[in-house]
From TrEMBL:
Belongs to the dTDP-4-dehydrorhamnose reductase family. It catalyses: dTDP-beta-L-rhamnose + NADP(+) = dTDP-4-dehydro-beta-L-rhamnose + NADPH + H(+). GO terms for biological process: dTDP-rhamnose biosynthetic process; S-adenosylmethionine biosynthetic process. One of its GO terms (molecular function) is dTDP-4-dehydrorhamnose reductase activity. It is an enzyme of class 1 (oxidoreductase). GO terms for cellular component: methionine adenosyltransferase complex. This is dTDP-4-dehydrorhamnose reductase. Its EC number is 1.1.1.133. The lineage of its organism: Bacteria, Pseudomonadati, Planctomycetota, Planctomycetia, Planctomycetales. Residues 10-297 form the RmlD-like substrate binding domain.
Length: 317
């Protein structure tokens, strides 16, 4: 209950991911949010969290008991494809997501799947939803098959490809963004930042605002929601450093040593998304990277990233 009114129940599956936890926080003021995960459950204000294998393995019973008005599945692609620590598109995750979609379809519960931009690859620079330039990696193909399954069992489902980043809400792990900023404060250069690949990143909280509009308009089918700027890893890292006023530039990218096979790896191709369809449907603009990183910086004041300015910071070569 809020203000004398009962809030609709929203289940977020995969609340242990960056996408899931930040979506739960973003939607907590307008829904009764129930976050579900198998392990590493975060603590999120105004959200109910259920965790454990017994919970995630009984999907049908869970839905019958909780009777949600809507379900968001962020378990299979709930983090950036650029995050080397993230588990994205595993076989178990995708099977659970497929089961969720089927169970929701049987109960006529609106289902939203968060998918990854990295199912697509070059040579095209801004992929539309109909793009056939698909990543041939095992993970990419697995996520594409998941999308196809969701569309087959539930034509009324909403599938959103995106490239999300944000603060890690888990008390068990250090997040990718947090580790990047800590390395920058120490003047370190990480080889992952020079890997190939381009994307259009968007912070989860801004993504949630657009997704909420999509819910209001009852959108179904496949859409792209992403940032307005195309960047590679090193450009993304430099923009983060600039936003947080860290004296760090990093080395220039040197991709000449990457083979064609490496460029076809998941998250290492041209995955920038064309968002014309969602912009036309909702009459909204996608946030620039500067806007997303500004929101991230604003959130750090109250949440998550303690900026330790007493440490010596040097400019990396």
């Amino acid at each position: 209950m809020q203000g004398g009114y009962r809030l609709n129940t929203l289940i977020i599956f995969g609340v242990d991911t960056v996408a899931g936890s930040n979506l739960a926080e973003s939607f907590s003021s307008s829904y009764h949010v129930i976050g579900i995960c198998e392990r590493n459950a975060p603590e999120i204000a105004n959200c109910e969290i259920l965790s454990g294998g017994a919970v995630t393995s009984q999907i049908g019973k869970l839905l019958d008991d909780l009777k949600p008005e809507r379900l968001i599945d962020a378990s299979s692609a709930g983090d950036s494809a650029w995050n080397p620590q993230a588990t994205v598109g595993s076989e178990d995750q995708c099977q659970t997501s497929a089961n969720l979609a089927t169970a929701c379809a049987e109960r006529k519960i609106p289902f939203t799947l968060i998918s990854s931009d990295a199912v697509l690859t070059g040579p095209w620079m801004f992929h539309e939803e109909s793009s056939e330039e698909c990543c041939t990696s095992i993970i990419g193909q697995r996520l594409l098959k998941l999308e196809q399954h969701v569309q087959a069992v539930s034509p009324e489902a909403l599938i959103v490809r995106t490239h999300l980043f944000g603060w890690c809400q888990s008390t068990e792990n250090t997040g990718w963004i947090e580790e990047m900023l800590e390395d920058m404060l120490r003047g370190k250069m990480n080889s992952q930042w020079s890997q190939p690949g381009y994307a259009t990143p968007i912070i989860v909280s801004e993504f949630a605002t657009i997704l909420s509009r999509a819910f209001e308009e009852n959108l179904t089918g496949l859409y792209h929601i992403a940032g307005a700027e195309r960047v590679n890893r090193i450009q993304f890292a430099r923009r983060l450093a600039q936003q947080f006023d860290i004296c760090w530039y990093g080395s220039g990218t040197n991709t000449s040593h990457y083979t064609d096979a490496e460029r076809r790896s998941f998250g290492c191709g041209e995955s920038s998304l064309q968002t014309r369809a969602i912009r036309r449907e909702l009459c909204v603009a996608m946030p620039t990277l500067a806007e997303s990183t500004q929101v991230l910086c604003d959130q750090s004041q109250s949440v998550l990233f303690p900026m330790n300015r007493e440490q010596p910071v040097s400019r990396a070569a």
